[in-house]
Amino acid sequence: MPFITKQDDQNVQLYYEDLGIGQPIILIHGWPLSGKSWEMQIPVLLNLGYRVIAYDRKGFGKSSPSFDGYDYDGLAKDLHEIITQLELKNVILFGFSMGGGEVVRYMTNYGTENIDKVALISSIIPIVKQKDDNPDGVPQEKLDEIMNALKTDRITFLESFHKDFYNVGLLSKTVSQKQLDYDWAIASFANPIATIKCAESWANTDFRPELKNVTVKTLIVHGDSDNIVPIDTAGKQAAQGIINNDFMIIEGAPHGLNVTHAEELNAIISRFLTSQ
């Protein structure tokens, strides 16, 4: 299996899958899943003629954990290591949910010279937390509940989280029980320390000052029924702060629109990649 060993920490290996040929697209998954979450997008990207690289964030999927390095500087450094060790050029970055943070922080810390374009899908960018100047964010009390649940009963919390991920309710069966079971298995297998520290990162990082660093062509896709990362605090603000963007709203879509609205999302992605 392909792994990249971190140069500054030989104990950490990042697992990745590398398929196809052509211009490289790196897929950065959301929390608390793995690269497997891109299952419905990878075939489409390969058919368009791209080289598709999906990796597992450290502590998730098949990548080994570390004790620290889960702030966005550390995570962007991992992304940079993948790009460097694979000698990738003219890269396209896709960030889903938490993965949008790696995309933006990468451009802040390493520039855009080697980046062709980016996509932010159901992304946390630019801010999750509710503040005086961000009234549409997630209240601190709710974030505290999440952190407490992760520390005291992580496995049970993950079951309910993925129902919210897809807006599953008594009268709303947006995905099958097997899909929920699959996601729960991936998320529960993740390292507990990585799960908690990454949650602290996406909950507490304010990317608003960094939006000016996103100067490449950008696709922003968000569902207007996202109960995890509300569109008003994320997608809409990202579209206001990123200069060169295509902002697409998928009506009725939850956070996990890459599964529930895969056909619509894939069509949007295809248009974005093939347009001039």
What do you see in this structure?
The chain is globular and about 45 Å long. The chain is α/β, with parallel strands linked by helices. Strand 1 and strand 2 form a beta hairpin. Helices cover 39% and strands 17% of the residues. One of its GO terms (molecular function) is hydrolase activity.
Features:
276 residues, alpha/beta, 39% helix
- The number of distinct helices, counting runs of at least 4 residues, comes to 9
Please provide the ordered H/E string of secondary-structure elements: EEEHEHEHEHHHEHEHH
Beta-strand content estimate = 15-25%
Q: So what's the overall shape?
A: globular
Q: State the secondary-structure class.
A: alpha/beta
Mean pLDDT level? 96
Reported for the largest beta sheet, the result is:
8 strands, mixed
What's the Cα radius of gyration? 17 Å
Indicate the percent of residues in helices. 25-40%
Secondary structure: number of strands: 8
Poorly predicted residue ranges = none
Spatial arrangement of strands, main beta sheet: 1-2-4-3-5-6-7-8
What's the end-to-end separation, in Å? 36 Å
